[in-house]
């Protein structure tokens, strides 16, 4: 989206990105559902994000700033509002990077039992 040359290309990529954001939110929800329906170790891992030390950073930086805000900005752009394309693109990249940092850090804290 950031490097698109035409308005048509930007709109098409924005629509595709909205679909991918929806799919990623679906996977995040099902990740936690799987954790909570599993063993005690996975439940403890889920609790890091659902009331533990990674709750605020995960939900603010990844879900809100990295997925929901860019989706709202892209929807506004598709409806005709002038939104600088760099803002949602940067937020998506930032959210993805934060997702990786937070997941690696949470993985280092949790333990794995056979």
Large-scale geometry = elongated
Total of helices: 4
- List unreliable stretches of 5+ residues: none
- Beta strand count: 0
Main β-sheet description: none
Mean pLDDT: 90
Give the proportion of residues in helices.
over 70%
Structural class: mainly alpha
Distance between the termini: 44 Å
Please compute the radius of gyration using only Cα atoms.
Answer: 17 Å
The succession of helices and strands, N to C, reads: HHHH
Beta-strand percentage range = under 5%
Number of domains: 1
Helix and strand topology:
Elements: H1 7-36, H2 40-49, H3 55-78, H4 86-109
Helix pairs in contact: 1-2, 1-3, 3-4
Walk me through what this model shows.
This protein has 114 residues and is an all-alpha fold. The chain has one domain. The chain is built from 4 helices and no strands. Helix 1 (7-36) crosses helix 2 (40-49). The longest helix is centred in the first third of the chain and has 30 residues, at 7-36. The radius of gyration is 17 Å and the shape is elongated. The model has no long low-confidence stretch (mean pLDDT 90).
């Amino acid at each position: 989206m950031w490097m698109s040359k035409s308005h048509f290309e930007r709109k098409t990529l924005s629509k595709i990105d909205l679909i991918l954001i929806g799919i990623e939110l679906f996977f995040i929800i099902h990740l936690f559902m799987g954790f909570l329906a599993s063993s005690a170790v996975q439940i403890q891992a889920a609790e890091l994000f659902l009331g533990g030390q990674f709750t605020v950073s995960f939900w603010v930086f990844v879900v809100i700033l990295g997925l929901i805000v860019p989706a709202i900005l892209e929807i506004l752009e598709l409806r005709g509002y002038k939104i600088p394309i760099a803002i949602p693109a940067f937020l998506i990249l930032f959210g993805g990077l934060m997702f990786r940092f937070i997941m690696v850090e949470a993985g280092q804290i949790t333990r794995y039992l056979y």
